[in-house]
TrEMBL record:
InterPro entries per record: Tscrpt_reg_HTH_GntR, WH-like_DNA-bd_sf, WH_DNA-bd_sf
Domain HTH gntR-type: start-end pairs: 11-79
Protein name, per record: GntR family transcriptional regulator
Classification of source organism: Bacteria, Bacillati, Actinomycetota, Actinomycetes, Mycobacteriales
Keywords for the protein's UniProt record, in alphabetical order: DNA-binding, Transcription, Transcription regulation
Xref: SMART domains: HTH_GNTR
Keyword Acetylation: no
Keyword Transcription applies: yes
CDD domains in alphabetical order: WHTH_GntR
Amino acid sequence: MEIPVDHHSAVPPYEQLRQGIIARVRSGELTAGTKIPTVRALAAQLGLAPNTVARAYRELEQDGVLETRGRLGSFIASSGDPTQDAAGHAATEYVAAVRRLGLDDEAALRYVHNALGEQA
């Protein structure tokens, strides 16, 4: 699995690796059930410390992107793209909160656009 990691980036290597795996899941390059390399194998391949890869794998497992099957190894989770599910859930929660506050759709969208502008 080839995932570029820029050691001069302000983004930590584990986060670059996490984002790279998620991007490959979204693109369909890594599909549900695909076995991924062991922590040590990927660390050696990418020139990273094993703890860096382990942290990325742990976070991906917490996010539902990976599942570990004991001695069999780690695999892309069979639930599809959990990042899409999480984003949909967050959007649903936001709409519910906006409704409780009595805001209309235009105001809700304005807050989203402002928040997106702040993240740019």
